Each structure stands twice: as structure tokens, then as C-alpha cells.
Request: fold
Amino acid sequence: MADTIFAGISPYSTLSSYPLLATETNPENASLVLAGVLVSLIVIYFASKLGGEICARINLPPVLGELVGGVVIGVSALQLLVFPESGNSASDSLIVNFLEKTAHLNPEAAESVFSSQSEVISLLSEIGVVILLFEIGLESDLKELIRVGPQAAIVAVVGVVAPFASGTVGLIYLFGIAPIPAIFAGAALTATSIGITAKVLAELNRLSSKEGQIIIGAAVLDDILGIIVLAVVASLVKTGEIQIINVVYLIISAAAFTIGAILIGRLFSPFFVALVKRMKTRGQLLLTALIFAFSLSYVATVIQLEAILGAFAAGLVLAETEKRKELEEQVVPVADILVPIFFVCVGAKTDLSVLDPTNPTNREGLIVAAFLIAIAIAGKVITGFTLFGQPELNKLAIGVGMIPRGEVGLVFAGVGAASGALSESTNAAVIMMVILTTFLAPPLLRIVFKEPLPTPSPENVAVETVQNSENK
Amino acid sequence: MADTIFAGISPYSTLSSYPLLATETNPENASLVLAGVLVSLIVIYFASKLGGEICARINLPPVLGELVGGVVIGVSALQLLVFPESGNSASDSLIVNFLEKTAHLNPEAAESVFSSQSEVISLLSEIGVVILLFEIGLESDLKELIRVGPQAAIVAVVGVVAPFASGTVGLIYLFGIAPIPAIFAGAALTATSIGITAKVLAELNRLSSKEGQIIIGAAVLDDILGIIVLAVVASLVKTGEIQIINVVYLIISAAAFTIGAILIGRLFSPFFVALVKRMKTRGQLLLTALIFAFSLSYVATVIQLEAILGAFAAGLVLAETEKRKELEEQVVPVADILVPIFFVCVGAKTDLSVLDPTNPTNREGLIVAAFLIAIAIAGKVITGFTLFGQPELNKLAIGVGMIPRGEVGLVFAGVGAASGALSESTNAAVIMMVILTTFLAPPLLRIVFKEPLPTPSPENVAVETVQNSENK
Reply:
């Protein structure tokens, strides 16, 4: 095996695509996978900046531009960035075609390069949302979150119960849909995409406002509630009954994790600061913080929660240390290169063909979709107004902040379709609901928050982000 | 396909590993791959910081600690981080075992999770070295590099010719090795690992010294010469003759790329600055710079050069703009999270079993290795002394800076072994030479440079790096 040491990281592996060395095929692919990933990143960054800049100029949230930029380069339009999970093969990907034309990628190797490159980009996008939630946690205020905890809990619970109940009942009685698919579609209405809302709030400089913290707290709780709802619904579909023990397990582990992470984290944070202060090598603060964040993310995954919850908890804990400001400054460039990959991929993986009314299946779905969209928006908007007697709160903004379903809502559709519970048209309706709420929420949020707080200087966003958290 | 939109980026995909939803296997793997990558990164960051901090305390370069940290967690020792390319399977990886025990990874899925996770980590390490060379380029001074160009060229050419000639001749006449394997082993002596040397120079605050710039310039030229030497040798082995046309093509394309990238880059850079100034969204400078760097990397790959040469050229060009300082500050955290992955992976993929003298094949190789190591060191150390009449230069330091072969030298061994030109014992000898030069060079460099310039403050390395480049 000695001859393969260092294989795959060799800067020279390009050489094996050189005709003289055609005997080796693995290093050739390794080098072409790097080439494919670099081209994908160029396309992703270009789409995110072009979309973001256009949106910033027409007074829409830049993250909407990143999503739309993703749609434009993705499966629905240019097909530059497509993924095997959506049923696309190497020949559908314009990037793979480009590699074949320019970088001597031979067609036999194309499928394997395509699958590797897609895997790497998907994983970078997942790390992107982990880093985003870590950054959101860092910019959040644990004390404020605990203080708004009861309000966030009301918003989260109402935002799950109201759309679920009205959606399910409406589908059964208005559209004559059978109970099981109706329950599944209703469950898909409960989700909230914390990533999209948090990003818009950060762009509006409202993350640390009371409304912002209620929305973040509620969205985090909603994520946990969503996991429980999905488990309950899936168990109902599969066995016809609810496995109480699993539901209880999820509730206990979610509560234990959240409280445990914060308590242990608080015990650990003085040790963290002391350790970082004694370290002498480059990147000591950032890498130690990431070790902590990734560890909590892993623990969250292990107990069937989500990696992003762990990253958020880690950010919250480290936000309480004296290193917060320095760490925030260092996380900004890391988030800048990873987070756009997430949003552009969400856009690129969105298949707009379900919106095409010339397809009969879609037409049937469109009517159901219109109903679902109405419930999806109304069911979340009312959540803010359940917070009685606090006239200073922008209740509409809180409700609007809970609207986007994003990728989370689609998991319900995916699980539903895979289990056979959802018909094709109901499934299409759920997807339309998710797309619309996801793309509508950023501009709506901007409208209900009137205008951004102290306008960001275009010159130095790193500084601005830090100031933002200092101003709270 | 609608049901799979967003698949693979879903934060909820964890759920499918939940027993209730066992019907879906793909999302399950996707979530476990993320878990595997997170654990790998935790292990890599921990090893790099532990190794780096220990080395910093015993006055050795931290990057040596990252390499040794990699060896400790890699294939030679703990087997936490192993790679399929080295012939390891999922069951060899302690991280995969850990996932099986903690994260409900079932053994059937282990091989696929292992291969995906290894692919992602390998690719992150490749992006790491691309970012490293981009940062080195940013911290280099194009005018200074051009000024030291003739000296760098002498160092590079002597550093290729001297070890190649003496190594090949010695192997043939002293050890009776056949000409073809002798030429191959000789060729492996010509390489220089720019990554390791540049990193040590940066750690010693010597990157912008005249010696530092000569070493960087020579190492870059050496990379290009190495590609040419490898092409020549491989063609010789394969066809028994040298295909002049390919060699000429490589020389012309390398020269055209280097000059073209810098000229076009200089024309482009005012446009770059103007564009970045007009952009309003977060990360505008960093992402625009990375689009440029990745584009040049891709072009370098396409014309059979290396991605890292493109990234270096992009850094050089952007170093001349007024945005240099701001960009350097933003690249530091990105390099901090990606570059250690590269060095730890180099260590983890190093198989120290070739050094075991109880294995008879190794014993035969050990004598040849001793000879190769002597030539490898002497052949590079003399390069500095070919720069006559410049008494102010630390000539020993220049020669020592060219010693580490790193991953580059191993590609020669890999190609040689794959083509059947190298016997097992000669191959093992080449690998021993590479390991020793790689691990010896960092401490030797520190000795010949006496001590680091203005001692780095442990508190704020980002600022220090910038000051460093301002002070030049």
C-alpha cells in the first residue's frame, strides 16, 4: 500500500489525466473532482452575489436573491448545478459537460466525478447551515432568549397546532382527502425554516430585537416540535397507531439536550477561555470553538435531533464568554464562504415544474395548494397575536417570521411520498406551499419590519455585524 | 422527482435513522456522512492544535506538530482517520466504528458512509492547500519575486539537476540498480513541497524576507519543473523514448499561464476593486476574490498544471490592489479552518510501516534510503550556495527551505510503482526519503533562521499576520 500514501491530496494528481500516465484512474478522478468542486463553487458564489446584489438594490433581502440565484442555476432552469438525489445524472449537469469539454474528463468517469462532486457540495452546504446556526447562536443573547422563552413557546405551539388542525380538517372536509394523507399534509404545515428567517433578521439588523429573539426561540422550539410531529405522523402511517414510547423519548431527549448543553456549556466556558488564552498557535480561538460546536452538533445528531441545534447551543454558550466579539469577527468570513452554498443549493434543488399549470396533476394540486398556502400563512401569522397585552411588540412581524417552511417542510413531503401516504397531487400541493412560503417570507419580513435598523455600511460588514451585537 | 427536492440538505434527515422511518436509506446516509465529517473535523482540529501547541512550546514549527498529529491519528497509529486510497476499509476506521456504536450507523451502510466521508475530507484538504497558496500569494510581493526571479531560477534548476543527476548515477553505480528505476528514484529527489516550506516561513515571520521570497519563487518553479520531469520520466518508462512534443507543450503552457495570469490579472484588478466597492452585500470582497482564485486554479488544472499554481497567481495579483490588507484579514480565518485539514491528512496518510526494519524488504530499502536521504538533503542545500557574491543572503537557509519533498515526492513514487518501474524495496526507499525530508525540514529551517522575527503575540494572530505583511 506504500505506493498510495498521500494519494488523493497530491497537487500533482492532475498529471495522471495527462495522456502519458493513463494507467492510473483514481488520481485522475480525484483531480477532476477538485476541478468540478471549484467550478461548482465559482458558479454558486457568482449566483449568490449576483442574486444578492440585485435584491439589495431593489430593497429585497439578499438571501432571497441567493435562493433565486440557486433556482436559476439549478434543476429548474440552467441545470448548471444539479444533484443525483433529484434523479439527475452526469449528462444533465452543465458543469460536468463543461469539465468534459475543457478538462479532459472522459464520459465513462463522468458519472463518478458527478456523484463525488455533488456529495462534496451537498456536504459543504450542510456545514454551511451548521455554521450559520453557530453564528446566529453567537449573535443571540441567552438571557434574552430565556426571558422571552414563555412567549417563544406560545408562538411555537400555536404555530404547530393551528396550521396542523385547520389544514388537516380542511383537507378532509373541504377536499374529501382521506385522513392519513390529510394528516401528513397538515403536519408539513407545522415546519419553520429557522435558517431563512434568521438570515433575513440578521440582514435587517433585527436579530437581537425582542421580536427577533422571540422568532429565533420559537423557530428552535418549532424544529424540535417538528421532529416530534413527524415521528408521530410517520408512526401513525406505518403502524396505524402512535408509539408513545418513541414520542416520550424524543421529548425527553430534546429537553435534556437543550438544558444539558447550556448548563454543561456554562461550566465549560471559563475553561474554554483559559485554554484559548494559553494557546500560542494560529487559529486557536476559532478551531477550539469549532471543536466545541461540532461536538454538540454530533451529540444532537446521535440523540436523533439535528446537528444545527447543537451548533446553535454552542454559539449561545460561547456568546456569554469574553471571547464573543473576537470569535464573531473570525466566524464572519467562514460563514461568508459556506452559508451561500446552503441557500444556493436550496434554490438549485427546488423543482419549479410542480408549478406548471399545463400539467394536469399540477392543476388538481393547485387548488389544494392555494388552500394550503392560505392556511400556511394564516396559521403562522396568528401566532404573534396570541401574545396578549404587550403593545410594544410587533406581533405581525413575529407571525411573518414563522412563515417560511424551507427545506424543513419538504422533508415532510419527502417522507410522505416515500411512505406512499401522499398522492402525487397532494404531494405537489405541499411542495408548492413550501416554495411559496419560502420565497414570500423574506420580502414580507422586510415589509413588516418597515426598514432595516442603522443602515449597514457597504464597506465593512464584519465590523457592522459586531457592532450590531454590541448595540443590543 | 418532486419528492426529493432539497434532499440531502435537510436538517431533518437525521430522522430517517429513526427506527420508525427505516424505509428511507439515502437521507439516513446523508445525515450520517455529515456526522462522520463532523467527527473527522473534530479529530483533525484536535490533533492539529495539540501537535501544534506542543511543537510551539518546544520551539519547533507548529506545522510539524500538525503533521505528527496527523501521523498519530492516521493509518500508522490510532487509525482514527484512514482513507480508502491507502487500502483501508470502513472497519479499519475508528471513526466509523464510533459512528456505529453511537449514531446507529448500521454495518451495511458503513462502507458507503466511510467512502463519502473520506472523499469529503480529502477534498477539504485539497481546498485547504489551494487556500494556503492563495494566502501565500497574498503575502508575497510580486515585484520582489520578479526581482529575485533570476536567483530563484538558479536555485530551482540546481535543485532539480543536482539531486537528479547524483541520485540516478549513484543508484546505478553504487547499488547496481537498473537505469529506469534509478531515473525514477532520481526524479523523485527533485520535488519540493511548497506548502510545508511556505507554512514554516510564515510561522517564522520570514515569508517576506529576501530568502523567503527566493525560496517561494524557487519552490513554485520547482513545481513546474517537477511536472515536466515527471512527464519526461513517465514517457521514458512507457515508450522507451521522450515525447518531445509533450515536454515542449508543458513548458510553453506553464510559461504562458504564469505570465498570462499575472498580466491579465493586473489588467483585471482595478475592475475587481471597483466592483467590490460597489457591492453592498456581506462577503463581497472575499467571495469575489475566491471566484477569481478558483477560476485561475481551474485554468491551471485544465492546462495540466496544478490548481495551487492558479491560486498562488491569484493571490499575487490581488496583493497588488488596495484591498490586500482587508482581504488578508478575511482569508486568515478561512485558512485557519481549512489548512490544518491538509497537513493533518498528509500525516494521517503517511504509512510509517516502511520504516520498520524487522521487515526484510524494508531492510534492503533502508540502505538505499540512507543514500537517497543524503543526496536529497545535500542536493538541495547546495542550491543556496550557487548564488555567488551576495554575502548578505542566508544561503544555508535557502537550501534548507528546498528540502521537504512532502506529498509531491510521493507522487513520483506512486507513479513509479504503478508503472512497475520501481521495485518494492526502491519504492520503500523513496518513501522513507520523502518522510524524512518532510519531517526534518521544519525543525532544520527554524535552526538555520536562528529565531523568529518579532515574536508573535499569542492573543491576536490575525492582526499579527497583517502587520507582518505591512512591515515588509
